[in-house]
């Protein structure tokens, strides 16, 4: 097993996740099997209880793990399936060490950060690295490790110390380290500044770690003088100083790295090539085709994303990626109108009429309306108004998780005449609960207590839109994250009025897919299909939504023999 760790410095948000995913693409294209893991130095057990405004989206894994959004980057780029163990947090590590201490595993010893916590980190890495994350047997060839935060943070120190020890246990031929840093250009001089990177490498060395590669984030390509200066001051070969400058789309990053020979350099550094080993030349032809296609798409499809957390777009990262994948396969350029749901509410008309008018004007100019997941009652009435607009004006609508519940509430109020219809989450006192709390969910504990992970959905009717979108399948597995469900006692009444639940769980108790008769595309899911979307294999609901919004759905279904067929790149 070979290991590549990636740490970052200077500032956060440089794109370590994109960098490590892009390196994985190169290795995979060169015939190597890869796995990835993320180290998050916070004390939370997982990301499940964090605010989207603070940490971005919570990415749900196949086994129900609630993880950092970077694991979503790994899965999408590398087309792998990770588990909750692939996200290491300080909360998990310390909980494990304390459990061992209580059990007596350290009997007679004073339990300390070094060696007990650092040993636990190394054991965790080695154990998880050998787990197969693709459809093949046996361990992967290379494990990619992203160290969250920035070098110099107090909370990251224990992990850097663990990696320092780890590199000597493995040997230099089995461990490499890459450092992601910022090379800014200040003022009007236009000179690329190297001091932030120099100081970052100096800080990294103080922990006993020396980078083998420096990945330099910059707005423009690294100049030769900048590369040579960094090479000299950071004691890294000039060829190992890699320019990761801004590109036209994210799919060009692996191509950019390959242009600078990173795959070959890394394979040589880890002794994955040699006299007795075959050359590792990445075959990126199909990946390049995709990157080129994204750049030449000119016909827009405009989607209104009506959300509660639009102030931080990373809150909907997987949703945006799934929309993008659908747009690529629909030959359209995706344009997202970010609409804060509170801006659509009548109260906003009284307090900030300009913001209210702008939100509604932008909504009416869109080709489709997307209502993603969320929690809490803020902005709910705005979402309901958006769903009503899409339903009554024949505008394609896609609801995800909360978006399904919103569609049910709107339909109950305006079609069935239940004027006080609501969810128990938002109004406990109403007598018309069309969405209720699931009985098996804890009412006291918050973390890890929702209905989580991959679960079976049965599509009841082969003529339904759901069956057509999923290529004719009647059994599908998608990932979930919710505490509330459609009230089973109201299903018959809703369906009698035209709102059809075409997908249900294996016990026929939970409503999983919603469709509306006599509408171009009014579709919602209780599950989160965005988490399994891939650039080469878009999520069926998102692809169908984009096709409907661009008026191509009927033609695509006809061309596919009655179902939507997806060409796997």
Can you describe this structure?
With 569 residues, this protein is an alpha/beta fold. The model has no long low-confidence stretch (mean pLDDT 94).
Poorly predicted spans: none
Given helix and strand content, the structural type is alpha/beta
Number of strands: 21
Distance linking N and C termini? 29 Å
Q: What kind of sheet is the major sheet?
A: 9 strands, mixed
Order of the strands making up the biggest sheet: 11-10-12-13-21-20-19-16-17
Count, helices: 20
Structure at a glance:
The protein is of the alpha/beta class and about 575 residues long.
Characteristics:
569 residues, 21 strands, nine-stranded mixed β-sheet, 36% helix, seven-stranded parallel β-sheet
Question: What is the secondary structure topology, with strand pairs?
Answer:
Layout lengths: L1 E7 L7 H14 L4 E7 L11 H4 L3 E2 L5 E2 L2 H9 L8 E3 H14 L9 H17 L12 E6 L9 H14 L4 E8 L12 H12 L6 E6 L5 H11 L6 E5 L7 H7 L2 H8 L15 H12 L3 E8 L9 H12 L4 E8 L5 H6 L1 H12 L3 E4 L8 H13 L4 E4 L1 H13 L7 E2 L9 E5 L13 E9 L5 H5 L5 E8 L1 E3 L4 H6 L2 E6 L6 E6 L5 E4 L14 H10 L3 H7 L10
Parallel strand pairs: 1-6, 1-7, 2-5, 2-6, 7-8, 8-9, 10-11, 10-12, 12-13, 13-21, 14-15
Antiparallel strand pairs: 3-4, 15-18, 16-17, 16-19, 19-20, 20-21
Helix pairs in contact: 1-3, 1-9, 4-5, 5-6, 12-19, 15-16
């Amino acid at each position: 097993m070979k290991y590549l760790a990636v740490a970052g410095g200077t500032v956060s948000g440089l794109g370590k996740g994109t960098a490590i995913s892009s390196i994985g693409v190169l290795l995979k294209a060169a015939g190597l099997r890869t796995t990835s893991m993320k180290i998050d130095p916070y004390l939370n057990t997982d990301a499940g209880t964090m605010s989207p405004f603070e940490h971005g989206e919570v990415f749900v894994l196949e086994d129900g793990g609630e993880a950092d959004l970077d694991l979503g980057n790994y899965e999408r780029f590398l087309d792998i399936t990770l588990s909750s163990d692939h996200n290491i947090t300080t909360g998990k590590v310390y909980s494990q060490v304390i459990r061992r201490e209580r059990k007596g595993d350290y009997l007679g010893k004073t339990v300390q950060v070094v060696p007990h916590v650092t040993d636990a980190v190394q054991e965790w890495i080695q154990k998880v690295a050998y787990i197969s994350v693709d459809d093949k047997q046996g361990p992967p060839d290379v494990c990619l490790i992203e160290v969250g935060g920035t070098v110099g943070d107090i909370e990251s120190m224990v992990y850097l110390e663990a990696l320092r020890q780890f590199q000597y246990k493995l040997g230099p031929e089995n461990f490499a380290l890459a450092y992601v840093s910022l090379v800014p250009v200040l003022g009007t001089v236009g000179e690329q500044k190297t001091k932030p990177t120099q100081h970052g490498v100096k800080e990294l060395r103080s922990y006993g770690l020396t980078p083998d590669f420096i990945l330099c984030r910059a707005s423009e390509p690294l100049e030769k003088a900048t590369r040579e200066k960094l090479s000299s001051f950071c004691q890294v070969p000039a060829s190992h100083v890699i320019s990761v400058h801004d590109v036209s789309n994210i799919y060009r990053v692996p191509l950019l790295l390959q242009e600078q020979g990173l795959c070959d350099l890394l394979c040589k550094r880890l002794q994955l090539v040699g006299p007795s080993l075959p050359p590792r030349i990445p075959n990126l032809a199909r990946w390049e085709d995709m990157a080129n296609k994204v750049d030449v798409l000119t016909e827009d499809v405009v989607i209104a994303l009506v959300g509660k957390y639009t102030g931080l777009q990373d809150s909907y990262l997987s949703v945006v990626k799934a929309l993008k994948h659908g747009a690529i396969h629909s030959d359209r350029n995706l344009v997202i109108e970010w609409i804060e749901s509170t801006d659509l509410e009548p109260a906003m008309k009284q307090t900030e009429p300009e913001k209210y008018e702008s939100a509604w004007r932008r909504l009416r100019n869109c080709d489709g309306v997307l209502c993603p997941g969320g929690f809490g009652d803020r902005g709910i009435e705005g979402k309901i108004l958006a769903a009503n607009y899409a339903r009554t004006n024949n505008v394609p609508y896609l609801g995800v998780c909360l978006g399904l519940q919103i569609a049910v509430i709107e339909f109950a109020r305006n079609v069935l005449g239940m004027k006080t219809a609501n969810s128990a989450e938002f109004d406990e006192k109403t007598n018309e609960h069309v969405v209720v709390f699931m009985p098996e969910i804890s009412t006291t504990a918050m973390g890890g207590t929702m209905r989580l992970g991959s679960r079976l959905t049965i599509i009841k009717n082969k003529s339904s839109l759901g069956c057509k979108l999923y290529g004719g399948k009647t059994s599908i597995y998608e990932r979930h994250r919710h505490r509330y469900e459609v009230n089973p006692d109201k299903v018959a009444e809703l369906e009698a009025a035209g709102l059809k639940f075409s997908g249900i769980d294996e016990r026929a108790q939970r409503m999983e897919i919603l469709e509306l008769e006599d509408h171009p595309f009014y579709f919602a899911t209780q599950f989160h299909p965005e988490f399994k979307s891939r650039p080469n294999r878009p999520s069926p609901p998102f692809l169908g939504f984009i096709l409907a919004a661009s008026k191509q759905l009927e033609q695509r279904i006809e061309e596919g023999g009655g179902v939507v067929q997806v060409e796997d790149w």
